[in-house]
Amino acid sequence: MRACCICFGLCAAGDQDVSPTIIEPPVPGGLAECSEAYGPVMEFFGLDPMTLVAASEGAPTPPAQEDHQHCHDAWVDALSQRESKRLLRKLLVEDAAVVKAEMLAAIRESVPSKNWSCAALGRTFGELLELTEILRAEHEAKEQNKCEAAARREAAKQERERHDRMMQMVKAPQKWLREADKLVESRGTQNYKAAAEILADLRDAVGGDEGAQITRKHAAHLAKKHPTLTHLKSSLRKRGLLE
C-alpha cells in the first residue's frame, strides 16, 4: 500500500511541476517491483517508470512473503475437531463461496503481521530524476547489447543453415532448380526473392564458371517464361543472375 502511495505521489509531483528541491518521503522496500504494475500510470503523468527503480535505490529489503500453502496447512492443523465439524456443516448448508471467503480471512488474521521497513534517504525530486536518466541509459545500453547479441546469434544460425543447404546443392543441383521453379509458380514478391536466393546460393555452391553458367541460364529461362513478372526479374538482377 505504501509503495502505491509513493507511486501516486511521484505522479502528482510530475503532473504539478513540483519544485525539484522537494524531499522525498520515507521509501519502503520493494518499490522497484511496482515499476511494471504502475508503469503505465507513471507514463500517463509524463514520468519514466524507471523513476520507481531510482526511488528504490538504497531502500531496505521487503519482508519475505509467506508461503500461502504453509499458512493454510498451519491453520487447518490448528483447528479443533469440534471447529472442523462446524465448518464442514457450514459448507454443506450455506453458500460455499462465502464460507471459503470467511475461512481465508481467518487464515490471514492468524498470520502475524510483519513490519514493512522504510528508509528516510533525504533525496530531492530533482536527484531522483537525474538518477532515473542514468538508470534509463544503463538499461537501454543493456537492451541494445542483448539485441545485438541476439542478431549475431541469428546471423550465425542463418549462415550455418545456408552452408548446410549449399552442401546439399552441390550433390543435387537440378533438385534446387526445380525448387526455384516451384517458388516462382507460386507467385508473390517473397517467393521471387526466395527463388533468386536459391539460384544465388546454388551458383556459389557449385562455384566457378559452371555454377555461374547453370544459374544464369536458368534465370534467363525463368525471365523468358514469365516476361510480365517484373518483381521476379528485379530479384534475379539484384543477385547478379540476369542482365
Q: Could you please describe the fold and organization of this structure?
A:
- By secondary structure, the chain is mainly α.
- The protein folds into 3 domains: 2-62 and 116-144, no CATH class; 68-110, no CATH class; 172-238, no CATH class.
- 72% of the residues lie in helices and 2% in strands.
- The protein has 11 helices and 2 strands.
- Strands 1-2 form a two-stranded antiparallel ribbon.
- It starts with a helix and ends in a 5-residue tail after the last helix.
- The mean pLDDT is 84.
Features:
single chain; 243 residues; mainly alpha; 3 domains; two-stranded antiparallel sheet; 11 helices; 72% helix; elongated
In a nutshell, what does this entry contain?
The protein is mostly helical and 243 residues long. The protein has eleven helices and two strands.
Total DSSP E strands: 2
Order of helices and strands: HEHHHHHEHHHHH
Structural class: mainly alpha
**How would the global form be characterised?**
elongated
Report strand order across the widest sheet.
1-2
Fraction of residues in H or I helices: over 70%
Name the beta content range. under 5%
Radius of gyration: 34 Å
Q: Which regions have little confidence, pLDDT < 50, spanning 5+ residues?
A: none
Helix count from the secondary structure assignment: 11
> For the residues shown, what is the average pLDDT?
84
Largest sheet: 2 strands, antiparallel
How many structural domains in the coordinates? Answer: 3
End-to-end span in angstroms?
71 Å
